[in-house]
Amino acid sequence: MLTGATMNDDEIQRRKNLTFEQAEGLVPLPTQLARTEVSPELRAVLWNYIHEEIQKTAEHSAGYGWSHLGKPWDNILKQVHVYREHKLIDDFNAELKPALAVVRRVFEQGSHSEIYGWLQFVLGINRSREFAQRIVTILKYCRSPYRIVADDVICPIGTDEDAAAIGKAFADLKASGFAGSREHLKSASAELSAGNFSDSIRESVHAVESIVRVLEPSGDFSKALARLEAKAQIHGALVSGFKSIYGFSSDEQGIRHSLLDKGAPAVDEVDALFMLGACSAFISYLINKSRGAGLLT
User: Fold this and answer.
1) Can you say how many angstroms the Cα of residue 158 is from the centroid of all Cα atoms in its chain?
2) Which end of the chain has fewer CB atoms < 10 Å from its terminal CB, N or C?
3) What pTM does this model have?
4) Cα(99)–Cα(228) distance, rounded to whole angstroms?
């Protein structure tokens, strides 16, 4: 029970989301992690869940005193062993304790790319919605800069709104059968994760161009927008904005053109994050506007 000065509802709610030390200003408030940062908290919470999932499906024999991987983790970890780590199958150990030790090393010692790469690979095998949702919850709780935006894609994001836009683009592309554009968007995410910012921007733009080529056989971006503007009543200011964003990627040396006498392209992580989010939103916009105008079936 509170004594003396009372707290209002806003202050109580604020404290619910903080540790005592944070609420009292004794340690810094939590912030979203940097793209390549993996906090001890994120490592521990992810491993806690993965360890629990592997343990609860294990097969035990009281009579013989052994424990082995059970389904589905026996198959999942075999595929990780062969197709991700490229190790020979007869070196795979399905005994529970050594199998757990191998996975633990990923979460205890792995870099951001090793951890998120492992998760993305496993998500591509383990289609359990509950598993994916728990990973989503953990990433948010630990302030990870990554989100699951499609069945088999973990993507760096700037905000949760970016994650929603990127996820919607992947869903719209899948529903419309635009496999090429989806692969470009997936590559844009992978290049951004790897720190290849100009390559990420290039792939984001290629994802848009794949849609444009369906709307306009010549592949001319301006002509495609003109067709869409005429059919779907797009405001002229929006058209100008789309052209300006596209122009940025087209004009910057090293993004769409070869590097000549100029140094590295003047783009950074913020630019790449923006373009991934902007191009994703634009893809969904193009698909839905074009379908409404009868330009796509």
Assistant:
1) 11
2) N
3) 0.79
4) 55
